[in-house]
């Protein structure tokens, strides 16, 4: 069977979600998937970015990461979205990309794909679960198949979020527990997408 195509589409201001996205990519690749790691376009004004040295540094450090396009969604069998939590919702930069996908949705080109999500917030109760659930609302409209990590691996009992990998930014960069959880989530997504792809090829 052909490998599963996985697109990892994320927004990261200061690098935490980017680090999680890299771990997701590692997990997907080790599970045998072909992977595209893509960031969405930055929409914040330069003045806002310039006021935060970490934001400036991360923007410069990730100039080599390609920006997400509709082709990445069409190509993928599975998509994992990553975003900081903004008042319990996805960041506006990610929403801006998602809100351009109407033509794909209308043509049925993203229905039946596997979707999952991961996030970071400044505090432990900063909207991590609601951010992932908010993204799920979009996946429902797309006719997507939502695959959460659940408590399907021992690492999940350490990370504690069955909805999707999450990280508390004020604790520093994502640690090994969050990175292992991200890799597990990716493997679970790839395994599910592979089973679906195999079944469809037999029809």
UniProtKB/TrEMBL annotation:
Classification via PROSITE patterns: FLAVODOXIN_LIKE
Matches recorded under InterPro entries: Flavodoxin/NO_synth (IPR008254), Flavoprotein-like_sf (IPR029039), Flavoprotein_WrbA-like (IPR010089), FMN_Rdtase-like_dom (IPR005025)
First-level EC class: oxidoreductase
A molecular function (GO) term: NAD(P)H dehydrogenase (quinone) activity
EC number: 1.6.5.2
One Pfam family this sequence matches: FMN_red
Start and end residues of each Flavodoxin-like domain: 6-190
Keyword Ribonucleoprotein: no
UniProt keyword terms in alphabetical order: Oxidoreductase
Keyword Transcription appears in the UniProt entry: no
Classification via PANTHER family: FLAVODOXIN-RELATED PROTEIN WRBA-RELATED (PTHR30546), FLAVOPROTEIN-LIKE PROTEIN YCP4-RELATED (PTHR30546:SF23)
Family: Belongs to the WrbA family.
Listed name of the protein: NAD(P)H:quinone oxidoreductase
């Amino acid at each position: 069977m052909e490998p599963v195509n996985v697109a990892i589409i994320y927004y990261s201001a200061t690098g935490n979600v980017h680090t999680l996205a890299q771990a997701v990519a590692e997990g997907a690749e080790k599970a045998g998937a072909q992977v595209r790691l893509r960031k969405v376009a930055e929409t914040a004004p330069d003045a806002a970015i310039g006021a935060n040295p970490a934001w400036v540094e991360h923007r410069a450090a990730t100039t080599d990461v390609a920006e997400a396009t509709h082709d990445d969604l069409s190509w993928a069998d599975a998509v994992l979205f990553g975003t900081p939590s903004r008042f319990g919702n996805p960041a506006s930069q990610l929403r801006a990309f998602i809100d351009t996908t109407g033509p794909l949705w209308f043509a049925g080109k993203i229905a039946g794909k596997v979707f999952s999500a991961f996030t970071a917030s400044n505090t432990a109760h900063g909207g991590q679960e609601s951010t992932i659930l908010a993204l799920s609302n979009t996946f429902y409209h797309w006719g997507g198949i939502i695959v959460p990590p659940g408590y399907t691996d021992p690492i999940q009992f350490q990370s504690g979020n069955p909805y999707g990998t999450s990280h508390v930014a004020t604790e520093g960069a994502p640690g090994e527990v969050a990175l292992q959880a991200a890799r597990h989530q990716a493997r679970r997504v790839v395994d599910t997408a592979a089973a679906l792809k195999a079944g469809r090829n037999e029809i």
